[in-house]
Input
Amino acid sequence: MTEKLLPFTRSHIENIIKDIPTPFHIYHEKGIRENAKELTSAFSRGMDFKEYFAVKATPNPYILKILKEEGLGADCSSLPELILAEKAGITGKDIMFTSNNTPPIEFQKAMELGAIINLDDINHIPFLEKHASIPSLICFRYNPGFLREGNTIIGKPEEAKYGFTRDQLFEGYKLVRDKGAEKFGLHTMIASNELDPNYFIETASMLLELIVDISKTLGICFEFINIGGGIGIPYTLEQKKVNYNQISEGILKKYNQKIRANKLDPLKIFMENGRVITGPYGFLVSRVLHKKETHRNFIGLDASMADLMRPGIYNAYHHITVLGKEDHSLDHIYDVTGSLCENNDKFAINRNLPEIETGDLVVIHDTGAHGHAMGFNYNGKLRSAELLLKPNGKIEVIRRAENIDDYFATLDFSML
Output
């Protein structure tokens, strides 16, 4: 059973909203730092490990800077994400650039920054060579197809648009070796929000076996494997936090059996988690605007799916706390909604909550990853602010809320 705690009180939030109106996302710096330390410590026992934070989860340079200070790199998949990493002081081999259907400018920027290039397609080899060059260190993304199962979020590997087949790996590594590449990496990403530790051990084992086969066949030296991200978080009260140590110990055992036994060490172990790093340490704070009683009882917030789309598109559960009513009985059933002209604009359906009144402050938990990042402007909605709760209790605005001028900035009304 997971206990959903808050790093702030109702009075703390009431002080904030004197200057910053709801809705907004607020991140807990102390929690993020401690979690990053815990993960790095667990995976560094007996292995040369590095975590590359998935920028897409929380693309804010202030968050990236915090993670850089904790020794994390950046996993990027677009030009803006590369620039965000650069602005946060993350460059060189501390960036893993993994993209698909990649335009030349993105490869060129990644090469300029000295990032590790992780190719998604064997056809990208001549494309990269034409528009940039073949780097001395290069990585390929592997799609195991029917050999592994994905999960409901990321889908079946054989249906995914990502990665090389096994045969293409052998062909691709030989090709880039002959073009001057000297060091190599191997990557995969086949699960998202996965809570079973064995899944990640099996993924590492699969890549380590491939390293042995490819190394012996082609005589090349691998510098690292990247087993991807996808470690999930306990969104519901019944779920449990993934045990980092269990995954790490399992991977180390496989490493000893396959890499050290075949004299292929040292081999670095990389991961690219996003959700598990910041997800539990972000919160969407909103105010109740309306109550509606028809065929159901509805609570209307000043936030909407434009601020948090996961419940609307995935039917995902996010725990809800009504500030000041934490100890009240959960004796009312509500649909908690936003104001989009879309019926799936709901944060909760038939949720047991305390009695709620207009003006109440509501906190939606676990929005620190894939929350603000997935926001949008449909229906003319303006994206909300992002705040950082510092260890000393102070608040920093790390992204202001959009205003009407921002929304119309790309339009030229003078041509009407």
Remarks:
- The mean pLDDT is 95.
